[in-house]
Amino acid sequence: xxxxxxxxxxxxxxxxxxxxxxxxxxxxxxxxxxxxxxxxxxxxxxxxxxxxxxxxxxxxxxxxxxxxxxxxxxxxxxxxxxxxxxxxxxxxxxxxxxxxxxxxxxxxxxxxxxxxxxxxxxxxxxxxxxxxxxxxxxxxxxxxxxxxxxxxxxxxxxxxxxxxxxxxxxxxxxxxxxxxxxxxxxxxxxxxxxxxxxxxxxxxxxxxxxxxxxxxxxxxxxxxxxxxxxxxxxxxxxxxxxxxxxxxxxxxxxx
Length: 255
Known about the structure:
By secondary structure, this protein is mainly alpha-helical. The protein has helices spanning about 1-20, 20-40, 50-75, 85-90, 95-110, 115-120, 130-135, 135-150, 150-175, 185-195, 210-255. The relative contact order is 0.07. This is Transporter, cation channel family protein. It comes from Paraprevotella clara YIT 11840.
């Protein structure tokens, strides 16, 4: 009877967490807190910074309540584990860590009040952007797409990393004597390789020798081709998911 009573409590809390009004309320405070942090960085918002910070602390209180409720409802999310193990698993999961980061400002202002730690607490909201992943269908769709082409992306990124390493080291030995300040070490060669490979071309580091310019041209061409590979993979996965979604909607309409 005691176990069943607790299971009903877990299910009740989990249902409340999944309801639209709760999700939209938390989403409102997530977006509002991020917007407040952005606005507080402008000089023109100086007269309103107290209100902006107050909203952030209110948002942290809401996130603290959400965090506690998710700890309570963790056994419903991880049914294959016992209650204490499911909570432990949630605490150290990706979402669990992000939820904890979001409540840090509330805890710090409660413990330290008017100290430098209160102002440093706002930095925690940088990571709070990741809370949008749970409440945004767009982010969830991106996550599904990346999961579908995970192996292919790892292969493409590995090939890019090998090419960057080879190019950066080779360019350092080619250009070091001609311009020792621009290519003072292999790290500068890596920076040049990244900028050239991504076709950004800041112009702060560039080859001056004939052999270096030839290598730079080759890297630019290869970079365009290599960047097109993951773009094509992700686009193809997106199209597959969209077609699958449309097919399911058509089947539901027919039924």
